[in-house]
Amino acid sequence: MAKSRNTGRSPSDGKSGSLTSDLAARIKRAQASEQAPGDAEIAAANRNMSGWNRGMRLGTEFIAAILVGAGIGYLLDLWLRTGPWLMLVMLLVGFAAGVLNVVRSAAEMNRAAPPPTVAMRAPDDEEDE
Questions:
Q1: 45 within some domain
Q2: CB-neighbour burial class of residue 69 (10 A; exposed 0-12, middle 13-18, buried 19+)
Q3: DSSP letters along the chain, please?
Q4: pLDDT in tens, 54-83
Q5: Is residue 123 part of a domain?
Q6: Number of domains in the chain
Q7: Residue 87 predicted with pLDDT over 90
Q8: CA-CA distance, 53 to 61, in Å (whole number)?
């Protein structure tokens, strides 16, 4: 019978079954702890974003959509030899897609933000003077 390299015992000894089940349990725990982030974790990350981070995210999404639209239009113009017309049309489509992305992202950020407290809603008396 084959001997195990580490212990010198055969793999069919009584302890090998418990070692295998222990290893399987540890693997399952490790896989469960490394799951993709859920909605709660994404919402928590959005709550922790500063104003600068939010602005950069929205600006990046807007500019990326415009550049992708212009790039697709440019490639279509090269392929179809239509001059700048498809690039201009796709630039406008990219602009519209960018605005839509910004509106969606801003709504998601607002939904994830904590509700305002009474102190945040009430006007400050010192500002009126």
A1: yes
A2: buried
A3: -PPPTTTSS-TTSHHHHHHHHHHHHHHHHHHHHTPPP-HHHHHHHHHT--HHHHHHHHHHHHHHHHHHHHHHHHHHHHHHT-TTHHHHHHHHHHHHHHHHHHHHHHHHHHHHSPPPPHHHHSPPHHHH-
A4: 899 999 999 999 999 999 999 999 999 998
A5: no
A6: 1
A7: yes
A8: 12
Q: What is the mean pLDDT of the chain?
A: 80
Q: Retrieve residue 31's tokens.
A: 């896989």
Structure tokens at 119: 């102190």
Which tens digit of pLDDT belongs to each residue from 12-22?
555 666 888 88
Confidence of residue 10 (pLDDT cuts 50, 70, 90): low
Q: How far is CA 30 from CA 17, 19, 35, 70, 126, in A?
A: 20, 16, 9, 45, 55
- Host domain of residue 85: 40-113
Structure tokens at 10: 């055969």
Residue 19 lies in a domain: no
25 within some domain:
no
Kindly state the tokens that stand for 100: 């839509």
